[in-house]
Amino acid sequence: MEINKDQDNHDSPHHGNIVLTVTTLSGSNTGHFLTSEILQEIIDWIIQKQKLVINGPMVLSYNDQVLTPTNTIEQAGVPNHAKLTYLAVVGGGGCCKC
Amino acid sequence: MDSVISKELFEQQVERVRGSDLPDHLSWVLLENIYPRLRVRMSHPKGDAREFLLDFSRFDDLPPWIMLVNAEGKPILEAGRLPQNGPHFFRYQSPTSPRPSLCYQFAAEYYEWWHLGSINVWHALRHLPEYEVLGILSQIYQLYRKTDG
Fold it and tell me: Fewer CB within 10 Å: C terminus or N terminus of chain B?
């Protein structure tokens, strides 16, 4: 429950120094983060916020660049008011014929 | 699939596309969205753009037929005019194929041309968000951005 409380804090402007929007197939949410937080925190937040069911590998991206979850927001160079996407990796394609 | 039900499903899912922020974020433009056709222009990170025509006439017994089309909405047939370097992205299944296609489980061609007899795979996938209209567009875009444009 402690984790949920922390993730709910991202709804509060008092929590962070940066505002980020994450869009998935289920919709968009905007939250407040510290630039010192790792990107995995954003992933955990959006999964909880949108009650996402994860069926396979997913990627967090900004400006068409895939982000590494263990990097901090600052290390990843994600600016204030950035719009991120969190989408499934394309799978199930290709075969010996193609 | 009854065409009335198919149309209703298409329209519900296209409405979700229109309500999503993804088209804006990823620079997609819906050019046509009257059942059973959905034509979308997607911009490539390198600055190019391509148009994709999806035919949902057998949705969702079958996923959409997906074509890479020119500005007149006609399928691009010349191999030299297709995006290169994409994994399984618009290739000819055989020398006699009518046009290039995608070998992916979100495309009708996968079941009708590439992997006959595997439609049960689609029936197991079609309820997942990644295989609804918005999810299919997202998958096409992710593949397209891996090409040279």
Answer: N
